[in-house]
Amino acid sequence: MGVLWAVCMAVVALSAVNGGASSSPYGQWRKLLGLVKEEPLVLKYHNGPLLTTTPLLNLHLLWYGKFTPAQRAIVVDFVQSLGMRKGEQGSSSVSTWWKTTEGYKGSAPSNSNPALGKQKVDETYSLGKSLKRSDIAALLETAVKSGALPPPETKKKGAELYLVLTSEDVMVENFCRSSCGFHGSATLKNVPYAYAWVGNSARQCPAQCAWPFHQPVYGPQTSPLLAPNADVGIDGMIINIATVIAGAVTNPFNTGYFQGDKEAPLEAVSACPGMFGKGAYPGYAGELLVDETTGGSYNAHGLNARTFLLPAMWDPSSRTCKTLV
């Protein structure tokens, strides 16, 4: 924290000396950050179960609140794109991005094939519009007991990952303050399972949870990028969904791959913050692809001619943060 603060103060000082005109503060960011010696980034395996080694991974969705059909379609296309066969989307694809998780295998072979599972829509706000973090697991338990979502798999044929998505008018404990999404685990009928949550930040905090499609509250104030699916809230959710599901499969029960304290771990994607393309640095997402028609920035192709912006993921083979472009 002290090193980062010193860098920030040096940037401010340099900007003031140069009058803020002839010298770019973002270029100074890059030069100064290059002087900071970083500790090697290694996500250690803690010998626990992983969801990357199961033959089939079913991703079940619980939509809480009001989403338009178009918004749901964007997310569904993303989830289905995770399991697309090689060559169907090209080299810069959602499935290529997901393939990096196969390197998180411990001592077992990794061959997880993600697939869209069941979906449950709760537009009645059954627990209200202000949720505690514990309510996420409670929603899933109710959905499973009612038969709307299948129970956790008890055989070795596959595994379940449950994803709760809340609409822009729903407040969740710590949302926007310290979290854009999270993953956790619970037990149902003595069977442990992994789940995750992500909220739509469009109304509450796009600066915190939808960057780089919105200007950040702090740091370099670069112009926001155009969202590839023309929905800042949903395109921001895709980034956060990618982050939490990558964490969930590689560290489902806090005994998988992570660095640091298991209560606040650096995981597959959270270990590589703010990186989307080559040359990324604080305030700059990196070199990205741009749609010639819409102007939307992206780095991954998906199902139904969709494009998405996906974050860098730590690659166990190279021990570096890996971007698609």
Automatic annotation (TrEMBL):
GO terms for cellular component: apoplast. Its main location: secreted. The keyword Lipid metabolism does not apply. InterPro entries: EXORDIUM-like. It comes from the Eukaryota. Residues 1-23 form the signal peptide. It is found in: Secreted, Extracellular space, Apoplast. The keyword Ligase does not apply. Keywords: Apoplast, Secreted, Signal. Pfam families: Phi_1 (PF04674). Belongs to the EXORDIUM family. This is Protein EXORDIUM-like 2. It comes from Taxus chinensis.
